């Protein structure tokens, strides 16, 4: 059994939370959230980057600031290009406003130029990422409609070739800046082997060269831990690439809160055997990590937990995204560290012991 080498967290909201007055605590002591994480077994940080977000966070300027903090702690750094001004996911792959009127050739060049610009700026301040995602949850394509392979377009070879060309442009730019950069291609189907195979088979056929398979796995959307295990096993043997489950989460409560709404708030959304409690969250994390560790040939190299510190630090969020995630964090509503975060350190000690 391999040991998970990446024990990561996506803290893309942290900058905005701190600017909005949010604070984090270990016991009664207020501490930098990144320091708390590093002291509790976290060794990798993932950040998303939006081209020109309306709220002014997760852009290049703020990414440069956050990257300095990540690298100052000696942490592995994964940068997630959304290629959008807003969320990019299976339901939204919206072009940046500045790219809306570009023809396909110009759009492809824009992907190359933007990727190269971002990475060159990070390189210049000595905070080069260790790993880069070219697109976020791109199962249905990216930069719609040119790169859309959703719905009827999924059987369209022309659309797949355009989509692949856009991804290749991002990969080429990343490799031109950092030839040793680890390139991830990330989809959302952690528990869906058939869909995962359809996607990666297509990319293999189209000659998309990348290093790491990225998957999202949320039990209320993507199935059971057994589904995840079966998918990881098949993908590892089929493609012989490293795999990172780059997004997951689990609730520590679903208790009704009059001031907060939650995306996971019903018993039927929970994974069997894991109650919505701090202990249930800890048990889920432990067993989730064990699934990754059991991936054949050591190809399950790690994970990132999505938005563990998105606490409700302010009533309204400046870029139009209400916080429906604050019961899926690894800190309570007041920013106090939950016991479940220590699961990573405990597992690390067991492995090293």
Task: Provide an overview of this structure.
36% of the residues lie in helices and 15% in strands. It is α/β, with parallel strands linked by helices. An 8-stranded parallel β-barrel has the order 1-4-5-8-9-10-11-12, surrounded by 4 helices. A two-stranded antiparallel sheet has the order 2-3. Strand 11, helix 9 (278-293) and strand 12 form a beta-alpha-beta unit. Helix 4 runs parallel beside helix 5, helix 6 packs parallel to helix 8 (225-239) and helix 9 (278-293) crosses helix 10. It is globular. The chain starts with 5 loop residues before the first strand and ends with a helix. The mean pLDDT is 94.
| Percentage of residues assigned to helices | 25-40%
Distance between the termini: 15 Å
Tally of contiguous helical segments:
10
What number is the mean pLDDT? 94
Rg for CA atoms: 19 Å
Largest sheet: 8 strands, parallel, barrel
Q: Can you tell me the overall shape?
A: globular
Summary keywords:
globular, alpha/beta, 353 residues, single chain, two-stranded antiparallel sheet
Explain briefly what this protein structure is.
By secondary structure, the chain is an alpha/beta fold. The protein is built from 10 helices and 12 strands. Strand 11, helix 9 (278-293) and strand 12 (300-306) form a beta-alpha-beta unit.
How are the secondary structure elements laid out?
Elements: E1 6-10, H1 14-19, E2 25-26, E3 29-30, H2 33-39, E4 44-49, H3 60-72, E5 76-81, E6 88-89, E7 92-93, H4 104-124, E8 131-134, H5 157-177, E9 182-187, H6 193-205, E10 212-216, H7 219-222, H8 225-239, E11 242-247, H9 278-293, E12 300-306, H10 342-352
